[in-house]
Amino acid sequence: MTRVDAGTVQADTTLQVLHWWTSASERKAATLLASRLADEGVAWRDVGIPGGAGIGAGKVLKSRVLANDAPEVTQIIGVSIREWADLGFLLELDKVATANKWSNSFFPTIQTLIQHRKHVVAAPLGIHRINTLFYNRKLFNSLKLSPPESWDELVLLAARLKAAGVIPLAQSSEPWQVATLFENLILAESGPDYHRELFVKQNAQAVFDKRFTQALERLRLMKNWMNNPVDERPWTDVVRQFSKNEAAMMITGDWVKGELNELGFATDEAFSCTPMPGTGKYHLYSVDTLSMFTNDYSRVLAQEKLARLVATPAVQADYNAVKGSVSVRRDADPARMDSCARASWHAFAQGAATQAPSLVHRMATDESSKDAIIAVIHRYFIDATVTPADTQARLAAMFKTFGSNKKQNP
């Protein structure tokens, strides 16, 4: 992290912004930010890298930093913020945070997330709720179905949909999408404490808990509710299947809401959302944030303008309405939100006891650990010969290795 004397800085009016917002709704959200930044006299040079969950963008960022060509602004989220700050690449935004009273305006979890060693190193954009079940109102109404509130209700619902010739669940076999569904099952089965025990603390003993076994068994059962075979496809294709009335439900993050709206599939008309059964009180979260790279310091004033701008009440309200997420601000107006957003914002506002940091979306652990865990879950999903016991043994051994590495490299 680097602090800069503003008196030594020369203003520059262009910022290159690297991110992974490449779907129609995401591009619309990025364009909104670029337009508001232009009003401040700063040009947004867009560098959007395709790839679900930011996998491609992460690789591009690393290669550009190694080539001494880091963008001025980058979408970096969760634990990755701390990793880049440790390397000394991120600009400290303390002046912006203090002047705009971020410590009083943001939820405590957000305030903690954007800090490293007592310095603010990221500007928060919005909160996504990952434990969201979307249901197709046309299909539900035609079959006189109600949204499920428990696992047993979900099972019965899936059986009725299959009997009616409807695919119950739109889903991809892409690794991060499978793991997203799995961590929903973990949260539903056990709540935030156990979710953290697994994915934050990486407790090897927790892997052998019967709740983990049951989550694995339920994941395999749910495979019968999907396309046969379950093909690997981007999340936008899954959303299109749902919007064409070809599947009745999706269980994923609320970013798909923005995409559905862009497709003309309106919230609370064509579809509605409810928490994943068993997680009504909980919020499995991911937070979008922007960090500023120090480079030659010639663009610090422009970087600080962007950081201030994205956290303002007006931009927060407008950006999150497009993106499908909710404001990071405690003073946001729920009356301006749709029903899905209101439920998400109120759930997050309940505090840390109800919140679970998403594994898949970089909130729970470092990049290498995340990727390794996802790979094990994905292997179980696609290979019917892999048993729950096999998967538990692999993960337990992996967690022990992670623990040993942390002791050797504190």
TrEMBL record:
Source domain of life: Bacteria
Entry-linked InterPro entries: Bact_solute-bd_prot1, SBP
UniProt keyword annotation of Transport present: yes
Keywords, in A-Z order: Signal, Transport
Keyword set includes Transport: yes
Compartment(s) where it occurs, according to its Swiss-Prot or TrEMBL record: Periplasm
Family according to the record: Belongs to the bacterial solute-binding protein 1 family.
Function: Part of a binding-protein-dependent transport system for a sugar.
Protein known as: Probable sugar-binding periplasmic protein
